[in-house]
């Protein structure tokens, strides 16, 4: 019996992984067609996945558990990295990620505007800040704390789904164009700061130039 249990366990685990993946893929398909992703029912997800409702709850005891698992799964599904390791990674990030966002547009917008999507993003803020701070350390180390904070904040903004959405909706750009634009802006800012040719303390510079309002 022990051998039978040992033999069956990997099969059960594989079946469990397949079912979990089917549920997440079903939510993704429904999310692409839904105007309010948070209102997609567990019943609809079960039907789309071709499983019983109780099976969905066996893998995800509550709707929030499913959605919490969905957003990291979506990032992995898109192949979009949110863990830059160098200044080069930060600069290249939008150019690589934004076209992929276009291919999953409805789900990415849902991650920006749904309650669970916003909660997921807020939950990742601390880790994201640590990663960006580490990647940008060669540039940030030359700046005062206040200046470093401004530069890092700009990097977070430009390398984000929010920037992708604004550049598309207000700038009229495609995802590829938006990525090129954001990467160009990051390269311009970080290169200028690294070379010392531009002061990062914008308010002070504005005062010195008599442009204070």
What report would you give on this structure?
The protein contains 13 helices and no strands. Helix 1 crosses helix 6, helix 5 (87-103) runs antiparallel to helix 12 (175-195) and helix 6 (105-113) packs across helix 7. It has helices at 2-33, 42-49, 53-59, 63-78, 87-103, 105-113, 115-123, 125-135, 137-140, 145-158, 161-169, 175-195, 202-208. The protein has 213 residues and is mainly alpha-helical. Mean pLDDT is 85; it is low at 204-213. The N and C termini lie far apart (81 Å).
What is the element layout, followed by pairings?
Blueprint: H1 2-33, H2 42-49, H3 53-59, H4 63-78, H5 87-103, H6 105-113, H7 115-123, H8 125-135, H9 137-140, H10 145-158, H11 161-169, H12 175-195, H13 202-208
Helix pairs in contact: 1-2, 1-6, 2-3, 5-12, 6-7, 10-12, 11-12
Number of strands: 0
Number of helices: 13
What overall form do the CA principal axes indicate? elongated
Please give the largest β-sheet. none
Contiguous runs where pLDDT drops below 50 for at least 5 residues: 204-213
What integer value in Å does the Rg equal?
A: 22 Å
Q: Helix proportion of residues, in percent?
A: over 70%
SS content category: mainly alpha
Q: Could you tell me how far the N terminus lies from the C terminus, measured between alpha carbons in angstroms?
A: 81 Å
Order of helices and strands: HHHHHHHHHHHHH
Strand content: under 5%
Average pLDDT value?
Answer: 85
Nutshell version of this structure?
It is built from 13 helices and no strands. Helix 1 (2-33) crosses helix 6 (105-113), helix 2 (42-49) crosses helix 3 and helix 6 crosses helix 7 (115-123).
């Amino acid at each position: 019996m022990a051998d039978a249990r040992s033999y069956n366990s990997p099969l059960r685990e594989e079946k469990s992984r397949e079912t979990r993946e089917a549920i997440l893929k079903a939510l993704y398909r429904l999310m692409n067609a839904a105007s309010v992703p948070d209102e997609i029912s567990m019943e609809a997800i079960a039907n789309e996945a071709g499983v019983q409702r109780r099976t969905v709850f066996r893998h995800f005891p509550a709707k929030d558990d499913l959605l919490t698992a969905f957003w990291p799964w979506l990032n992995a599904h898109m192949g979009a990295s949110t863990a830059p390791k160098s200044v080069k990674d930060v600069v290249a990030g939008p150019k690589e990620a934004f076209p992929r966002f276009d291919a999953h547009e409805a789900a990415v917008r849902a991650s920006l505007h749904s309650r669970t999507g916003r909660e997921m993003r807020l939950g990742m803020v601390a880790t994201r800040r640590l990663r960006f701070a580490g990647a940008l350390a060669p540039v940030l180390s030359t700046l005062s704390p206040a200046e470093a904070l401004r530069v890092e904040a700009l990097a977070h903004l430009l390398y984000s789904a929010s920037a992708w959405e604004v550049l598309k909706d207000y700038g009229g750009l495609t995802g590829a164009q938006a990525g090129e634009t954001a990467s160009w802006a990051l390269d311009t800012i970080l290169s200028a700061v690294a070379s010392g040719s531009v002061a990062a303390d914008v308010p002070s510079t504005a005062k010195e130039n008599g442009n204070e309002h």
